[in-house]
Design a protein that fits this description.
4-stranded antiparallel beta sheet; 45% strand; 167 residues; Secre_tail; signal; Secretion system C-terminal sorting domain-containing protein; Immunoglobulin-like
Length: 167
Amino acid sequence: MRFILIANNGGVVEYNYELTPTGSNGTLVKGAWQSVNVLLSFFQNLGFNKTKFFQFKLGTSSDLVSDIVYFDNIYFSVNPGTILNTNTFAQQASLLAFPNPSHGNWKIQSEQNIQTISVHDVSGRQVLVLTPNSSEVIIDAASYPAGLYFAKCTTAAGSHVLKLVRK
């Protein structure tokens, strides 16, 4: 199994990381789940220049391979194994919008003062901006057409986008 980074240096160049049962660059364990962390420095040591990154692909060394391989959870990360830190999770969990979906108003509550809220429709058009400086805000959506809206809420902890549905 190959993980291939492709650069465009005026021409397409491929850089391979290969998993094999005998351990070319990494060992492939047949019939078992495994985690593989491939560092960008591996490809840079082969001559890959990250400013020339074009695309990546997954493949095999031969078209004659008949086994099936399943991929689950492919991450590109500055810090391998870091998916969601507790600060980000706590910030997201501290904002609530209800009722959602709504026929009229949405009530947004936060553990901190909400400095600004900008509401956008699904096409990206801004439909409302508020500067409440309060931990609780009522958005009157009675005149909005039914559909999906996004509310970007900014607090001292940062910004978070809530998905709002108008029935």
